[in-house]
């Protein structure tokens, strides 16, 4: 026998239950000749056998049937009691078939006659092999049980829901993990095998989609809404895989169900914020566009108004053309009103803010509201007696109330209820998303007021608005009314007034159920007199004698406006120098070149602003009377180059009387 063969001989440890030492040696020697490397223990009684089984379990037990005190049957019972799975082979000189069969039924693995020991080695090889197979099977079963236990713990402790649904003959849940209780409020045992209960918890609109995904084993993520036994709606995301039988037929699906409610709400909030940002940027763009259009249109209206007045001054009182010119002037005034609304929307119209009480505004307009809306609409007022004061132009907030009321009246052609209410919103709560379903012009946290908000709400029971209409409601010229029934500037004006005051406009509406528009204004503790109107008509001096030969430098880049302004001044006795740009004014009429008594300049011009031009002139003549003309508001251009002190402002389009009175006050301040 070679060394390699010796190394490859299987080693076995044998327990010999045999009272004959010679017989035991013969058995061991036969096993060695059969290729085994054998170690052995020989015992003759139960106690010795038990000791070996306990301390040195063998690979094989060979037991002589005929033992005086410890036979094969007793040894077999002892081995079974130990719980060890060890091959047990009985050898005997002579025994009947019935006895051998009884031993095999009792658990012996084989029975050999001593005169036929040629079967020993094959029998041992077979039994060791089968014992090894049984051991491997037990190990696999134990591993499977451990795996199943790990899966059970994982399924029971997972926050995601694991499930399996049988599809034939109908969709029915076979297994669902305990996490389903967090979604539905039901334990797994209440849902398994009860498809009606399970599907009743799924949102009615999502139910067909869920069933369809199961029937087709669609692996794409699917979001489904659930209505649990208690609590609020839950959003889930499902992923499934199909289970097929041997013929390839889909028989079941299994997958994961995850609660994505917070994610859905976060996505909705991001989308809401994105739409709000888009709305804000669109409104800002429209505001810039509206302001630019109004500025240019004001220049044109100024020309129309100025020449209309000049022509009227030259016509006799009985001239039939006077009526035509009056109509031109009235049309120009109406057009100027539209431009003022555009400037209000773009926050470029002059304003005279005061500290006031919104309750007083509502009470003060109540009678006018009654005459405006008619008897078929009930007016209800709910006013907070402790309302915060706000700072806003009184005329502007009255215009806001009137515009909202007029819109509400149009929404209730068959009558209804109009409710005007006021309330405070504290600083922390402020204009939160929950309070404002559709906020326009929301300030950043840094811009929010320190003392809270005052809210004025106008609610009606009219036809309401769709979400799309709400999103566009404050855009200028957007209207749902028929041709000739509105300009589409009502809510745009409201937006401009409120935004200029640092506030917000919230719109809550549903088609067929009415509309509530909330005006939120920053609370204030400031008070003081309103600024003096520098354009009031309080001069009665004859226009033709105003100038008295004083020299006025008119700087205006619009030739038509410059021409009509010059005509008005010259007709009133002024000497006028004209310049089409600040550069021309400095070059031709700058300090030390020509005597001028006052500077009348446009505010916004290419290359240099009117403010910068004033600074240039005042470097050598700090007391030079100056006046600004602008199609914007009295403060809309301040951010361009600062607002020098002592500068009067004349809003375009202006009448000849307004121009002359403002210039008179500039030249002769009181």
UniProtKB/TrEMBL annotation:
Reactions accelerated catalytically: ATP + protein L-histidine = ADP + protein N-phospho-L-histidine
- EC top class, as a word: transferase
Q: Which residues cross the membrane?
A: none
Q: What would be an example GO MF term here? A: phosphorelay sensor kinase activity
In this chain the Response regulatory domain maps to 13-129, 551-667
What GO cellular component entries does it have? plasma membrane
Q: Where is this region: Disordered?
A: 413-452
Occurrences of domain PAS (ranges): 147-211
> Predominant location of this chain?
membrane
Name of the protein described by the UniProt record: histidine kinase
Q: What species does this protein belong to?
A: Frankia casuarinae (strain DSM 45818 / CECT 9043 / HFP020203 / CcI3)
């Amino acid at each position: 026998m070679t060394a390699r063969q010796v190394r490859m001989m299987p080693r076995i440890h044998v327990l010999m239950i045999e009272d004959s030492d010679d017989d035991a040696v013969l058995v061991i020697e036969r096993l060695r000749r059969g290729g085994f490397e054998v170690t052995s223990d020989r015992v003759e009684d139960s106690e010795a056998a038990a000791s070996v089984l306990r301390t040195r379990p063998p690979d094989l037990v060979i037991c002589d049937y005929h033992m005086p005190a410890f036979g094969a049957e007793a040894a077999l019972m002892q081995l079974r009691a130990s719980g060890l799975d060890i091959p047990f082979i009985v050898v005997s000189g002579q025994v009947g078939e019935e006895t051998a069969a009884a031993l095999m039924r009792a658990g012996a693995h084989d029975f050999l006659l001593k005169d036929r020991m040629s079967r020993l080695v094959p029998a041992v090889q077979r039994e060791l092999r089968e014992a090894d197979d049984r051991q491997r099977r037990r190990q696999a079963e134990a591993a499977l049980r451990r795996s199943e236990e790990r899966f059970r713990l994982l399924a029971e402790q997972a926050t995601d829901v694991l499930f399996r649904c049988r599809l034939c003959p109908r969709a029915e849940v076979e297994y669902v993990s305990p996490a389903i209780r967090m979604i539905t409020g039901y334990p797994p045992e209440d849902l398994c095998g009860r498809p009606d209960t399970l599907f009743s918890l799924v949102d009615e609109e999502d139910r067909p989609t869920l069933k369809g995904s199961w029937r087709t084993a669609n692996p794409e993520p699917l979001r489904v809404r659930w209505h649990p036994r208690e609590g609020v709606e839950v959003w889930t995301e499902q992923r499934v895989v199909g289970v097929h039988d041997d013929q390839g037929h889909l028989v079941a699906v299994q997958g994961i169900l995850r609660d994505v409610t917070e994610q859905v709400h976060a996505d909705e909030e991001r989308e809401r914020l994105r739409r709000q940002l888009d709305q804000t940027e669109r409104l800002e763009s429209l505001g810039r566009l509206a302001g630019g259009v109004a500025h240019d249109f004001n220049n044109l209206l100024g020309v129309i108004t100025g020449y209309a007045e000049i022509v009227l001054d030259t016509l006799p009182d009985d001239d039939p053309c006077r009526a035509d010119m009056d109509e031109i002037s009235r049309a120009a005034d109406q057009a100027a009103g539209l431009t003022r609304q555009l400037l209000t929307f773009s926050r470029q119209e002059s304003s005279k803010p005061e500290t006031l009480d919104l309750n007083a505004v509502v009470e003060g307009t109540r009678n006018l509201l009654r005459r405006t809306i008619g008897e078929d609409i009930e007016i209800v007022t709910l006013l907070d007696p402790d309302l915060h004061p706000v700072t806003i132009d009184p005329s502007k907030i009255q215009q806001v109330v009137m515009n909202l009321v007029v819109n509400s009246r149009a929404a209730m052609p068959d009558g209804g209820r109009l409710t005007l209410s006021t309330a405070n919103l504290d600083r922390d709560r402020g204009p939160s998303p929950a309070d404002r379903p559709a906020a326009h012009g929301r300030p950043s946290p840094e811009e929010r007021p320190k003392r809270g908000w005052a809210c004025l709400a106008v609610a009606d029971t009219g036809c309401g608005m769709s979400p799309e209409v709400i999103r566009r409601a404050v855009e200028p010229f957007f209207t749902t009314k028929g041709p000739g029934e509105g300009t589409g500037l009502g809510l745009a004006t409201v937006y401009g007034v409120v935004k200029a005051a640092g506030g917000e406009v919230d719109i809550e509406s549903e088609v067929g159920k009415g509309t509530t528009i909330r005006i939120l204004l920053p609370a204030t503790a400031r008070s003081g007199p309103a600024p003096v109107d520098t354009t009031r008509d309080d001069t009665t001096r004859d226009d033709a004698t105003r100038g008295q030969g004083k020299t006025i430098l008119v700087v205006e880049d619009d030739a038509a406006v410059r021409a009509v302004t010059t005509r008005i001044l010259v007709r009133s006795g002024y000497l006028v120098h004209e310049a089409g740009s600040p550069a021309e004014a400095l070059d031709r009429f700058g300090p030390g070149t020509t005597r001028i008594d006052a500077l009348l300049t446009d505010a916004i011009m290419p290359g240099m602003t009117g403010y910068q031009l004033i600074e240039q002139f005042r470097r050598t003549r700090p007391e030079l009377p100056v006046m600004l003309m602008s199609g914007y508001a009295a403060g809309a251009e301040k951010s361009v180059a600062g607002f020098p002190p002592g500068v009067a402002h004349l809003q375009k389009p202006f009448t000849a009387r307004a121009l002359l009175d403002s210039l008179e006050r500039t030249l002769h301040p009181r």
